Structure formats: structure tokens, C-alpha cells
Amino acid sequence: MPLLSVRDAGRRIPDRWLWRGLSFEVDGGERVAIAGPSGSGKSLLLRALIGLDDLDEGTVSVDERPLADWHLPDLRMRVRYVPQSPAFADGTVRDALSGARAFAAASGAAPEAWAVERLGRLGRGAGFLDARTETLSGGEAQIAALLRAMQSGPHLLLLDEPTASLDPDATDAVERLVSDWLDEDGARAAIWTSHSEEQRARVATRVVDLGTAIPAPEASGERATETAAL
Length: 230
Ligand SMILES: Nc1ncnc2c1ncn2[C@@H]1O[C@H](COP(=O)(O)OP(=O)(O)OP(=O)(O)O)[C@@H](O)[C@H]1O
Known about the structure:
six-stranded mixed sheet, ATP-binding, nucleotide-binding, ATP hydrolysis activity, P-loop_NTPase
């Protein structure tokens, strides 16, 4: 059973369709990238995959169950979205991670030591947990949001340009962290958006390309393409 199924999905904005006829599946163990130029609707697609944004056509199912049939907290435990510019409630990074743990208590999410160990791999000390979230740089906020998402115990991570604000070393560390997270459990999968073809080749074995899926305003025949293995 696929973890995620997208069938004949279409999304339009007032003046045009961004993409139509988009269909793909993601199984446990898969690493998928979403490609496409700025404004092609990569973020809107990721948001639609977890019901934060609507489709104009088509369906998204998780575990073969349409999103509309999911109890939202259960869906959030199964699939987590890490936005490009994450937001946090007031408090410290520790508070943000504790919230994720409380949210996912039923899944037996990991204790603080888990976060400290991962922070070490990202070149950060335990002191990072004491930082106020409103003082984080863009890259630090992405790190905190990634850990928060991982810690809530999902099977599918939706990563929206998760290294966009990070330097090359930190980018490398985040790529390895996600890869290790996937290796730890073959049922897990990740979908990345990235503008970098090199990064897509590093982090994914399959690419869904929205760049070829921007129809003329009233056209309906064009289709998003999925490239085969990289
Ligand atoms: N709620 C909305 N209503 C109308 N238009 C929207 C809405 N949200 C986004 N858009 C538009 O939809 C298009 C796709 O936006 P999106 O952020 O998904 O693109 P993207 O491919 O992720 O871009 P980037 O690579 O720059 O992050 C853009 O033209 C954006 O202005």
C-alpha cells in the first residue's frame, strides 16, 4: 500500500493553472524531489499533501485514505510538513520540541537526548535548546523545525527547501541527517523541494517535475511529468 497517492491533482490560481493531471505515489523507503521554477507551485503542492492548502482537482490519499477522511491530529502524526520559513509559538527551541513530543506522545517520541544528539550532528551544542525561537536565524529556524517534525514521529516528511538558508556545511549535515532518519526505518519516506539539481540528485532517487506542467491558461491537456530514476 503506498504511503501517499496523488491522483489527477490540479491547482489553479486566479489567472492560470499551476499544474494539472498530476499523479504519483510514494512508498515507504522512497526519496522523492519536487522540481520546478519559482512560482511553479512546489510549496502549494507540499501544503496540499497535508491538507494545508486545497486542490482544485484530484485527490490526495495517505495510506489509501483520502485526506478528508483523516482525523487531523492522526494525519499530522503520519505526515509532517516543514515549511521554508517555519513559525513557532513564543518560547525556546526546547519548548518547541517539547510541544512536538507532547503532540506525538502516543507514538513514543524520543526524549531530549535525541534532540541533543541530532544537534551535535548539525554542529550545534545543547545550548541551542535554550535559544528563543524569535531570535533564530532563518537557517537555525529550519534546523529547529526539522527536528520538531522528526521528533513527532512521522512516516513521511515534506521538506520545503529545508536548506535554503543554510551554509554548505550545514546543508551537507541536514542532508545526512534526513538520509540517516530514512535509513533507520524502511517505512519512512521524504519529499524535498529544491531548486538545485545537484541537491535533488543527492537527496532523491525520483523527481516530480512541475516545471513541465504549467499549461497555458485554458489548456487542459498538458501533464506534469515524473522523471525516472536519476
Ligand atoms: N493562496 C494563494 N492564492 C493565490 N495565489 C497563490 C497563493 N499562494 C501562492 N500563490 C501563487 O501561486 C504560485 C506558486 O506559489 P508557490 O509558493 O507554491 O511556488 P514555488 O514553486 O514553491 O516557488 P518558490 O520556488 O519561489 O518557493 C505563485 O505565483 C504564488 O504567488
